[in-house]
Amino acid sequence: MSLTLHHCHEARSMRVLWLLHELEIDFELKVYPFTELHSDEYLRVHPLARVPALEHNDQVLYESGAIIQYLCELYSPDQLGRLPGHAERPAWLQWLHFAETIAVHGASLVQQHLVIYQDEMRSATVQKLERRRMEKGLAMLNQHLSGSEYLLTRFSAVDVAVGYSIYLARFFTDIKQFPELQRYYLSLASRPAFLTSLPKEGDSHIIFQQDFYTGPA
Ligand SMILES: N[C@@H](CCC(=O)N[C@@H](CS)C(=O)NCC(=O)O)C(=O)O
User: How close is the Cα of 168 to the center of ligand 1, in Å?
Assistant: First the structure.
């Protein structure tokens, strides 16, 4: 069995890295600088030169949600996954994909704050819109989590998918305004597998050089 994850620190591939650590299976990790994905070699793995990409034997997958579902079905159908027929299967699928509803706004804010570095090219309107739409998603999560430890009845891979999206959102909004969500995130962020998926002290090529990026009010 050969399993290789292509990863950039703090990017969506962190979801897959975190999940692989939760699964406690052997894999090879290839880490790239975020700005250096466009080599001919990597374009042969992922035609859009993005991360994550997962190679499993002769199979290549490059959507984090699909990769999470694939890995759960192979390695943890009953613990981290929920198979068809399980009462929580519809909710499991919904949260898995809801993770991207939050993350797309985070990714847009990364572009606004970190990728576009000429001030005159940034848009205060786009920043406000993206942050507010992201916060609406976080508020909905906050409500859902009231009195619940996890998104489903027990920890599963959808907590990994959504947990990464909250990790990303924290750079652009103060999650203290969502107390249930903050409690949930802090609990996820203390898991050994999450901590192992973070960049290590001194790692270069991290995306976030600051703890918080302030935008227009
Ligand atoms: N929906 C995809 C999004 C993948 C994606 O856009 N990844 C970003 C990092 S978070 C990327 O590789 N960006 C590099 C680029 O766009 O050049 C997923 O969830 O895997």
Answer: 13
